[in-house]
């Protein structure tokens, strides 16, 4: 069982149309690195000069990594990492 | 209505134990400011006016258009024909629904110079807007004056909502530190929107409003609600530990009201004699023209080079031409009205 990264709608075009991508890695950073290895086009949607864009939040099993260990948050197989950008319309 | 008992119309919700007669009386005595009266705003206003919230101020800068009718529940074809402002059209419907509620429609563009005035006598601020500039302004005003507010957003089949109680819960900037740059997230014009997604988000917002105004803050939602009606997902993520973000939140911890102070946001200048308006939007970094062009080509004709992007479209029979620069600035030809230009910018370039 791998780690699953859930891809939000505005980024799916850059992830081969997928809503979920399986990755490996022991931390959030490693998992996102693996995602970018598989789908390099998603890089600019997520990062700006190596920093996560400030309107994209990363949740590990529904917990925000900013109150865990940020990008160093440890993850294991079976964990779901969700990328959640702010929703603008209305 | 010729009711002898004016509370009779609220009997079904008063019978709900969480509300009761005392909760209803609090609703009747309460005042809200609704920022924006489009898809979210019409649903929120409809629920709150029927529920008997005493005073509802509705601010919106826009007019009713045919493409609104699919989801903006208070409007009809006659409002389009009569070219009515949304705030006025909504007020007329809402007064027919419940004449005992005081409705104050305001046809205006919400900005940093007027929002504090619109909110100062309100018990609660509700987000019915379609852009983050207004939401961060609401957040600044709410935190500065200690007023609760409820965020809602919807696009495509998705939506989210979050309740902000100053001093108790995280504020919008604790959770989403900065606004998406123009063109980086979808808008209802570029990505489309399903009416049920908006109705659900707005219904969550209205429920939170009823809880707060009736004094039931113990049961408010303290998580970020995220729904997708097409993919059948409904999740709540924990945001409570982000409150004040260890003293670093610029808004609720440091009390720097950057949007209210004008450090961010949009400024418009009407370009005299050219039937054009310049919209200056401060963005971090540069716009990605290739990406923006990909989004805009669904709505009109797009060309771009290294320096600028041209986008031509026809909206309700009127032609407009956008010239967008890398720094987020745009010149919009086809109108001399700043409000119209800001609306077009928010719709197509987004925020």
Structure description:
- The complex is a heterodimer of chains A (90) and B (351).
- With 90 residues, chain A is an alpha+beta fold.
- Chain A has one domain: Roll (Ubiquitin-like (UB roll)).
- Helix content of chain A is 17%, strand content 28%.
- Chain A has 2 helices and 7 strands.
- Chain A has helices spanning 28-38, 43-46; strands at 3-6, 20-23, 47-48, 51-52, 56-60, 63-64, 80-85.
- In chain A, the strands form 2 sheets. Chain A has a 5-stranded mixed sheet with strand order 2-1-7-5-6, covered by helices on one side. Chain A has a two-stranded antiparallel ribbon with strand order 3-4.
- In chain A, a hairpin with a 2-residue loop joins β3 (47-48) and β4 (51-52).
- The radius of gyration of chain A is 12 Å and the shape is globular.
- In chain A, 37% of the residues are buried.
- The model of chain A has no long low-confidence stretch (mean pLDDT 93).
- Chain B is α/β, with parallel strands linked by helices.
- Chain B folds into 2 domains: 8-247, NAD(P)-binding Rossmann-like Domain (Rossmann fold); 266-349, TATA-Binding Protein (2-Layer Sandwich).
- In chain B, 31% of the residues lie in helices and 24% in strands.
- Chain B has helices spanning 11-15, 20-28, 39-51, 77-81, 86-97, 115-119, 132-145, 172-175, 188-191, 195-213, 289-296, 338-349; strands spanning 31-35, 55-60, 102-107, 124-127, 149-155, 158-164, 223-228, 233-238, 266-271, 276-281, 301-304, 308-315, 318-325, 330-333.
- In chain B, the strands form 2 sheets. An 8-stranded mixed sheet of chain B has the order 3-2-1-4-5-6-7-8, with helices on both faces. In chain B, strands 9-10-14-13-12-11 form a 6-stranded antiparallel sheet, with helices on one face.
- In chain B, α3 (39-51) packs across α10 (195-213).
- The longest helix of chain B is centred in the middle third of the chain and has 19 residues, at 195-213.
- The radius of gyration of chain B is 20 Å and the shape is globular.
- The model of chain B has no long low-confidence stretch (mean pLDDT 92).
- Classes of the chains: A alpha+beta (90), B alpha/beta (351).
- At the A-B interface, β6 and β7 of A face α3, β5, β6 and β8 of B.
């Amino acid at each position: 069982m791998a780690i699953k990264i859930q891809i939000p709608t505005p980024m799916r075009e850059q992830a081969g149309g997928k809503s979920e991508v399986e990755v490996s890695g022991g931390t959030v950073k490693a998992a996102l690195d693996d995602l970018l290895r598989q789908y390099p086009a998603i890089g600019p949607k997520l990062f700006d000069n190596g920093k996560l864009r400030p309107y994209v939040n990363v949740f590990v099993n529904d917990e925000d990594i900013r109150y865990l260990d940020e990008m160093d948050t440890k993850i294991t197989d079976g964990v779901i990492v969700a990328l959640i950008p702010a929703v603008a319309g209305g | 209505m010729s009711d002898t008992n004016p509370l009779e119309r609220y009997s079904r919700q008063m019978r709900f134990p969480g509300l009761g007669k005392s909760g209803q009386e609090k609703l009747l005595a309460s005042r809200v400011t609704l920022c924006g009266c489009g898809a979210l705003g019409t649903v929120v206003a409809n629920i709150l006016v029927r529920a008997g919230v005493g005073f509802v101020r509705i601010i919106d800068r826009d007019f009713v258009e045919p493409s609104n009718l699919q989801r903006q529940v208070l409007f009809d074809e006659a409002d389009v024909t009569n070219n009515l402002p949304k705030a006025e059209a909504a007020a007329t419907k809402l007064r027919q629904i419940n004449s005992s509620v005081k409705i104050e429609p305001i046809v205006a563009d919400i900005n940093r110079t007027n929002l504090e005035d619109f909110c100062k006598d309100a018990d609660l601020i509700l987000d019915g807007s379609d852009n983050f500039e207004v939401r961060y302004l609401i957040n600044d005003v709410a935190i500065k004056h200690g007023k609760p507010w409820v965020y809602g957003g919807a696009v495509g089949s998705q939506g989210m909502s979050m309740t902000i109680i100053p001093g108790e819960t995280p504020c919008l900037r604790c959770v989403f530190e900065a606004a998406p740059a123009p063109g980086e997230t979808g808008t209802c014009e570029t990505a489309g929107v399903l009416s049920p997604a908006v109705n659900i988000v707005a219904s969550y917002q209205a429920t939170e409003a009823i809880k707060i105004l009736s004094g039931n803050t113990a049961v408010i939602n303290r998580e970020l609600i995220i729904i997708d009606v097409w993919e059948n997902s409904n999740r709540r993520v924990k945001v409570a530990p982000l409150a004040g973000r260890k003293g670093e939140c610029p808004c609720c911890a440091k009390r720097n009201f950057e949007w209210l102070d004008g450090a961010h946001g949009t400024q418009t200048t009407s370009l005299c004699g050219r039937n054009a308006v310049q919209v200056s939007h401060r963005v971090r970094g540069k716009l990605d023209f290739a990406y923006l062009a990909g989004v805009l080509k669904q709505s009109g004709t797009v060309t771009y080079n290294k320096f600028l992007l041209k986008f031509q479209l026809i909206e309700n029979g009127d032609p407009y031409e956008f010239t967008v620069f890398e720094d987020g600035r745009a010149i919009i030809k086809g109108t001399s009205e700043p409000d119209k230009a800001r609306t077009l910018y928010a719709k197509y370039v987004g925020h």
